[in-house]
Every structure is written in structure tokens, then in C-alpha cells.
Automatic annotation (TrEMBL):
Keywords: 2Fe-2S, FAD, Flavoprotein, Iron, Iron-sulfur, Membrane, Metal-binding, Oxidoreductase, Transmembrane, Transmembrane helix
Record-annotated FAD-binding FR-type domain positions: 203-303
Species annotation: Nocardioides koreensis
Membrane topology of the entry: Multi-pass membrane protein
Transmembrane regions listed in the UniProt entry: 34-53, 73-94, 114-136, 148-166, 178-198
Subcellular location: Membrane
InterPro entries for this protein: FAD-bd_FR_type, Fe3_Rdtase_TM_dom, FNR_nucleotide-bd, MRET, Riboflavin_synthase-like_b-brl
Named cofactor requirement(s): FAD
UniProt-recorded name of the protein: Ferric reductase-like transmembrane domain-containing protein
Length: 435
């Protein structure tokens, strides 16, 4: 609602500045449309940053999965409108002549205040957009993608002078000027407070450090972290934090890992699968290594629960937050079932056996590779279709809250099976592995 209201406001100011009247001429119409696309692109650019600023209000309401999805849509829309702004306004300044447009673009870039900075910012945003395309992301390590993505903040900052120095709709109205300065200032403050200040303060306050590293399976380790007053850290079972382990190469790049054990006020545990440089080095962390954290994040936690009975369904290392939920949720014997799909080595078998004996947790292990790209089942479970198998194992699946964690395509197949079994969408809670 706030985003739509802000778009309505900037469109009103474009209209009040004569934007509609300017559409009557070819050159003036191009320039006017260029101004409108620039205004909307700027507004969406700020919204894009705020979606990933870790604002508690947004985080609690929507969770990181949904926010990341909206961030991606808003980001691509903003960038496309920014390109349209450059093309339209340059074409308009060239009096509607395509032949004169390249020369006009060069003249605007070299003579208008802030334009060189805006060009640099646009190139940085282009780099971020190019590496956010699915085909490009598939070829990049998470650490490389994360580092490149940080340049987006610099790109946004470099675009600011041009907009505030030369933008007609920024300067003609005191209300518009106040709006844009306030919007930019609040966005910058949100990033500095929630992405920088709060993580540094919490990490220093709790004195987080590694206590031990335990091998769980080939290529998978659990890292135990202790600190002061961890009972005051507002983290719930099933949530994740972004972790930086100091004193090693690449420590500036944060890696998101879910808790694999319910927080007990004395220590935290994450379980890491080797998938890149940062995760591979987790196995070699030494006791005493200092830790910086951001978070906690995510709605895959007890507060999403609405029903007494729950089903926890995870794939591979995606079982880690579900393991924490199986320990941290309150349930009667038989009211919770955990389904773990794995290729070769199930995780936390002994720990889950303890929860079976002491809490009445029901567990089901599904071995093997996925039998089809549109199935959530492994190839070692027979030939029954996805929905039949699900309702055979959990007959009352439609009357439970279902928590799911794993790769995005796999979780989508679980969602389809649950929906076909009659589960209302508001009782399906998901955390996917995507970035």
C-alpha cells in the first residue's frame, strides 16, 4: 500500500508540473515521458533497497523469502524504467531526432551536473542486474554474487546527485523536494541502522565466538557458537542469521545459515553444507574465532503456527531449521511429523531418535535422488504419485501447519502436492535456498 501511494504521489507531481500538457508535442512528449519513467524508477529504486534493508516490520510480516521475491521484481522493473528514462529524455532533448540522439546523450553526460556520476551508477546497477539473471547466477558462486551485489548500494548513491540537482520534479515544488530528500535520507538511515549498526551492536554485546566444529556427514559440519547473554538475542527455532567468521579470507561476505538446534540461551548451532568458498571453510574454523551476525530473519518459526498438529518436510541440508523446530515447538506425542528426503546420508538421526522417545516426534526418511524434476520424492520410495504418497504417510496433512525447507524447485513441488491434498495456502510455511 505504501509503495502504491508513493507512486501515486510522484505521478501527481509530474502531472502538476505540466507532464500531461507536454504530451501534445513530439519532442516535449518524449521528454515528459522520460521524466515520468525517471520518477517512477527512482521511487522503485528506493523501495527495492528498503525491501532488503531488514526492516523488522517488513521482516515479521512477510519473511525474507517473500521480500527477496518482491525485491527481484521491483529491481528489474526499476532498472527497465531507468533505461527508458535515459532513452526517452535523450531522444526528447534531441528534438525527436534519432540521428541526433547519440550526440545529445554525450552532451548531456559531459555538461549536466551529476550526469557523470549517474552514468557510473547506472553501469554499476547494470552489473547487479546482469548477475541477477538466473542463467548468470547459476554460474556464480554465492560469495562472488554477494560481493557484486553490494555495488548496487554504490550505484544508488551515485544516482542521487543527478536527480536532486537537475530533476525538474525535484526542484519546482517545496513539497516534492522535501519528499525526495526525506525518502533518500530515511532509506539510507534504514540500511545503516538495520544492516550495519544493529548487527555490529549485537555481535559486540554478545561476544559471539566459535566453540567447536563437528562433522555430521561427508561435506557437512555443525558449528557451535557461544556468547554472553544469548537469552536476550531474539532468535526463534527455524530462523536463520547471516554469519561472518572473522580472521579468515572472505570474512566480509556474509553467508545465511539456519539454526539447526533450538536456541537454549547458552549457545547457537548451525549446520553447513560445503557449496562454495565460505561454506567449505566452515570445517576448518577454530575454537575462539570471533563471529559477526545479522539477524535473526525468516518466518519459518513458531510464530507462523496456527494449528496444534504440524508437519516438517525438508530436503538435504534443508532439514536443519526443521530439526530446530522439532526441538523448539510445543506439541503432544504424535502431533508432529518430520519427513527428511536425502540422497545418501540422513542428518541428525540420533538426535531425532531422542525426540521420538522423549517428545513423541514421528519421523520418516525418504532416500534417493529426486525421481523426476516435478516430484518432491526420492527414487527409493516406489511408484505412487506425489499426492497419494503424501496422504498415505500423513493422512491429515490438510489439517496441519506444514513447514518446508529446501531448494526452490523442490519446495514448489511440495506446495503443489499439499495443495492437491487440500491444505489451505495460509498453512504452508516455506523457506527456500535461493539468492
Amino acid at each position: 500500500m505504501a509503495l502504491w501511494l508513493s507512486l501515486l504521489v510522484v505521478t501527481y507531481w509530474w502531472t502538476a508540473a505540466g507532464g500531461i500538457q507536454d504530451l501534445g508535442g513530439w519532442a516535449s512528449g518524449l521528454t515528459s515521458l522520460g521524466r515520468l519513467t525517471g520518477l517512477v524508477a527512482s521511487d522503485l529504486l528506493l523501495a527495492q533497497v528498503l525491501l532488503m534493508a531488514r526492516l523488522p516490520l517488513l521482516e515479521r510480516a512477510f519473511g525474507q523469502d517473500r521480500l527477496a521475491h518482491q525485491h527481484r521484481i521491483v529491481g528489474f522493473t526499476s532498472f527497465n524504467l531507468m533505461l527508458a528514462h535515459v532513452g526517452l529524455i535523450t531522444w526528447g532533448y534531441a528534438a525527436g531526432s534519432l540521428a541526433a540522439t547519440p550526440g545529445t546523450l554525450w552532451n548531456l553526460t559531459t555538461t549536466y551536473p551529476g550526469m557523470l556520476l549517474a552514468v557510473a551508477g547506472t553501469l554499476l546497477l547494470l552489473l547487479v542486474v546482469a548477475t541477477s539473471v538466473r542463467a548468470a547466477r547459476a554460474r556464480l558462486r554465492y560469495e562472488s554474487w554477494h560481493l557484486l551485489h553490494l555495488y548496487g548500494y554504490l550505484g544508488v548513491g551515485l544516482a542521487l546527485p543527478h536527480q536532486l540537482w537537475t530533476g525538474q520534479e525535484f526542484l519546482t515544488s517545496p513539497a516534492a523536494t522535501a519528499y525526495w530528500w526525506t525518502a533518500w535520507a530515511l532509506t539510507a538511515a534504514a540500511v545503516l541502522v538495520w544492516r550495519v549498526g544493529l548487527p555490529l551492536w549485537r555481535s559486540a554485546r554478545h561476544g559471539l565466538h566459535v566453540t567447536s566444529v563437528v562433522r555430521e556427514a561427508p561435506g557437512i559440519v555443525s558449528v557451535y557458537v557461544a556468547g554472553r547473554g544469548l537469552h536476550r538475542l531474539p532468535v526463534e527455532p527455524g530462523q536463520f542469521l547471516s554469519w561472518r567468521f572473522l580472521g579468515r579470507e572472505g570474512w566480509t561476505r556474509a553467508n545465511p545459515y539456519s539454526l539447526s538446534a533450538a536456541p537454549d540461551g547458552r549457545s547457537l548451532r548451525i549446520t553447513v553444507k560445503e557449496a562454495g568458498d565460505g561454506s567449505a571453510e566452515a570445517a576448518y574454523l577454530r575454537p575462539g574465532t570471533k563471529v559477526l551476525v545479522e539477524g535473526p530473519y525468516g518466518r519459518l518459526s513458531p510464530r507462523a503456527r496456527q494449528r496444534h498438529r504440524v508437519a516438517l518436510i525438508g530436503s538435504g541440508v534443508g532439514v536443519t531449521p526443521l530439526r530446530a523446530l522439532a526441538e523448539g515447538l510445543d506439541y503432544a506425542p504424535g502431533d508432529a511429523v518430520l519427513v527428511q528426503r536425502f540422497r545418501s546420508h540422513p542428518l541428525f538421526v540420533r538426535e531425532l531418535a531422542v525426540l521420538e522417545r522423549e517428545r513423541g516426534l514421528q519421523t520418516l526418511y525418504l532416500p534417493g535422488r529426486r525421481r523426476a524434476s516435478d516430484s518432491w520424492l526420492g527414487d527409493g520410495v516406489g511408484t505412487a504419485d506425489d499426492v497419494t504418497a503424501l496422504t498415505w504417510w500423513i493422512p491429515d496433512i490438510a489439517q496441519r501447519d506444514v513447514y518446508v525447507c529446501g531448494p526452490s524447485e523442490w519446495t514448489a513441488s511440495v506446495r503443489r502436492a499439499c495443495a492437491a491434498a487440500g491444505l489451505p495456502p495460509e498453512h504452508f510455511h516455506v523457506e527456500s535456498f535461493r539468492w
